[in-house]
Amino acid sequence: MVKEYETVIGLEVHVELATKTKIFCGCSTRFGGEPNTHTCPVCTGMPGSLPVLNKQVVEYAAAVGLATNCDITRHCKFDRKNYFYPDNPQNYQISQLYLPICRNGYVEIETKDADQNVVTKKVGIHEIHMEEDAGKLIHDEWGDCSLVDYNRSGVPLIEIVSEPDMRSADEVIAYLEKLRMIIQYLGASDCKLQEGSMRADVNLSVREVGSKQFGTRTEMKNLNSFTSITHAIEGEKNRQIDLLEAGEKVVQETRRWDDVKMESYAMRSKEDAQDYRYFPDPDLIPVEISEEWLDELRAKQPEFRPEKIERYKREYGIPEYDIEIITGTKRMADIFEEATALCGQPKKVSNWLMVETMRLLKENNMDADQIRFAPEHLAKLIQIVDQKVINQTTAKEIFEVMFADDIDPERYVEEHGLKQVSDEGALRKTVEEVIAANPQSVADYRAGKEKAIGFLVGQTMKIMKGKADPGTVNKLLKELL
């Protein structure tokens, strides 16, 4: 009899917070910059330097906790996690083990079953704690050395530790998308996986279906795309099942996933808390959180997606499918609302986002949070089409440039001479030339073939280099025919 196995998955999600300065010093958190230029004695671990806690970090962490139904720890503190590695200049990381700021929360996710029915499930959050990020090792593939950049050292993180409640890659991705959406709506982080501001470690084990006992788990580190996470889960699940079927044991260890070879390999044996010799950080006083301060944070919580969906249905009159897509990311929702407020055309804004924007995102393999164009530029584009300054075909061409470089469409039209010709006198001569040059299409139209006029419109637009007003061209053709 073939055994059936169940996958058990828990996640540790690291999120870089959107503060301007680091967690314990005043150095910039801006992404990029020359190596080791965003550093000081505190974040490079110089002897005698003392950390000072950034209050905004506590506020973001607590806000994420409130949005994920966590209990907020009123008296929390920091601990030292001791380990030796070149990207860790202090030889310890300041984190929270004993009294994390948030505990016992959950988020609701939606997935689809085999029959495509929507299934709702709660994924528990064991804790959320604050900590500092490490530096970055840069491996010289042509030499025999590794270089260290400490710009990222001391950047504030929250680590969101889930319960082992997920059973498939689909549930994991749904959970990560839900977390990312909540955090982006809060403005606590941009959650850009491609820049490392959201990273996930996957803890995975397998067990026979029906068993209540967990199997031996492995951890896969720092997966930075949903595709990599999906591949890693499927690959590790199959590896563990193959071991068990062969009568071998799964070893508790940390593994690294290789997305090129589509396989994982062992990095080191999995450490337990005692291996890090945690102890309370003597340089940082405990954090006391009052109920009054939490009430202020609750009052500042934004309109999240469920409420936004209901408001869009009431206010904008756009299809529910459009609403689901637009509210799926904060960036898209912000563009929609701001552009609509400027031009007063929610359906047209929605159409540009749902058709052209989604097409270009797909073609460029981009996420919605990477959209560059400003809402006011989309509103201007809609307005100059409405005013017949340009036609729809030209607008699409301009939009592609706007999508890539966020140009001002009005200025672009002026600079490139793209204003459409609507004057009947100026167009009549061209239309007459098209009629004279295409006798067969003229005969077809007069014989009752209405579609023939479309060809004549196209020929006129071609001669006018796309700058003719199609409505005026259509009107003139019908009049002259």
Question: What can you see in these coordinates?
Answer:
The protein has 481 residues and is an alpha+beta fold. The protein is built from 15 helices and 16 strands. 39% of the residues lie in helices and 21% in strands. The strands form four sheets. It has a nine-stranded mixed sheet. Strands 5-4-15 form a three-stranded antiparallel sheet, with no helix packed on it. It has a two-stranded antiparallel sheet with strand order 3-16. Strand 12, helix 3 and strand 13 (253-258) form a beta-alpha-beta unit. Helix 7 runs antiparallel to helix 8 and helix 12 (424-437) crosses helix 15 (470-480). The longest helix has 20 residues, at 226-245. It starts with a strand and ends with a helix.
User: pLDDT below 50 for ≥5 consecutive residues: which ranges?
Assistant: none
Report the count of strand segments. 16
Helical content, roughly? 25-40%
- Order of strands across the biggest sheet? 2-6-7-10-1-11-12-13-14
Overall morphology: elongated
Q: Give the overall pLDDT as a whole number.
A: 90
The biggest sheet, with number of strands, parallel, antiparallel or mixed sense and barrel status, is: 9 strands, mixed
Which structural class matches the secondary elements?
A: alpha+beta
**End-to-end span in angstroms?**
79 Å
**If helices are DSSP runs of H or I spanning 4 or more residues, what is the number of helices?**
15
Strand share of the residues? 15-25%
Query: What integer value in Å does the Rg equal?
Result: 29 Å
